[in-house]
UniProtKB/TrEMBL annotation:
GO terms for biological process: methylation. Pfam families: Methyltransf_25. Keywords: Methyltransferase, Transferase. One of its GO terms (molecular function) is methyltransferase activity. It comes from Winogradskyella marina. This is Class I SAM-dependent methyltransferase. Residues 125-217 form the Methyltransferase domain. The keyword Transferase applies. It comes from the Bacteria. Transmembrane segments: none annotated.
Length: 285
């Protein structure tokens, strides 16, 4: 029997067992599926085997959503909700296990790019800072930068971050919409960062307008680490498409950055990353 056939049998068996457990324990099933995004991204290490089987069955039964505006509204409503803090807590180990080994290389490349700049960049802004781990790390990696700002929609998580990183006087955390913050506080000589999936929650037109907005600030850098659907070929389908079961949006990031006027100093992808493709873009004014 091939590995593929064995995998299919295992998945079918897991679905059957999961559905049986969902039927037998409806209260637990309701707790697991109280929110679509939490259900999908719940850390498996925090679940016992029956709960994992139930989660697998529940995820497979999620209804498909095709209304782009509804998807964007649903995702935004989750990230401003207090439940987002549970997900950020669940993913703290991702910094050590995923970000450092798989994503930190792009910031080594950024260091080399900055050496070629005659102007100094005094501010780094992380859009969608989450639990603040990445911003705290970057403040140590870039000692020449004076100010590090972490923006997130979750006011609860921002308060957690303020307390957790209170000893790091170079970082600050702000509850804000990214576009509103750029309108009110954005300036040139700033580095913008998104990490582990943030821009994927923007509608394509919203993301294009946001990148246009950042570009108009003047001298800026942007590092985006974002997921794409494994089947999203930018050449055959240059536009955004749905990705995953949340769902979110798989954007053609090189195209959108170039449309805004940015020059790309880096573009790469890692396929098979968490079941999809991880895209790395380095752009500058």
């Amino acid at each position: 029997m091939s590995i593929s056939n064995q995998s299919n049998i295992i998945h079918k068996l897991a679905a059957v067992l999961g559905n049986i457990l969902v039927f037998l324990f409806p209260k637990k099933a309701s707790e697991l599926s109280k929110n679509r995004i939490t259900l999908i991204h719940k850390n498996k290490n925090n679940l016992n085997i029956p709960e994992r089987l139930m989660r697998f069955a529940l995820v497979n039964k999620l209804d498909k959503i095709q209304d782009y505006d509804k998807i964007a509204e649903m995702n935004r409503n989750f990230w401003v909700n207090k439940e987002a803090t549970e997900l950020f807590s669940d993913t703290e180990d991702k910094f050590e296990n995923d970000f450092l080994p798989n994503c930190s290389f792009v910031f080594d490349l950024l260091k080399k790019e900055l050496l070629n700049e005659s102007e100094e960049f005094d501010t780094l802004v992380e859009i969608g800072t989450g639990n603040g781990e990445v911003l705290n790390y970057l403040s140590a990696e870039f000692p020449q930068i004076n100010r590090f700002v972490g923006i997130d929609l979750s006011s609860d998580q921002i308060e957690i971050n303020k307390e957790r990183f209170s000893n790091n006087k170079r970082v600050e955390f702000v509850t804000a919409d990214a576009s509103d913050w750029v309108n009110q506080h954005g300036s040139s000589n700033t580095i913008f960062v998104s990490s582990d999936g943030v821009l994927e929650y923007f509608l394509e037109q919203q993301l294009q307008e946001f990148l246009n907005q950042v570009y108009r600030l003047g001298k800026t850098f942007f590092v985006a680490i974002e997921p794409n659907g494994v089947d999203h070929n930018f050449e055959t389908n240059p536009n955004s498409q749905l990705y995953g079961k949340e769902p979110s949006f798989s954007h053609n990031y090189p195209k959108l950055f170039k449309n805004a006027g940015f020059n790309l100093w880096h573009f790469s992808q890692k396929t098979g990353f968490k079941g999809g493709t991880q895209t790395f873009v380095g752009a500058k004014y």
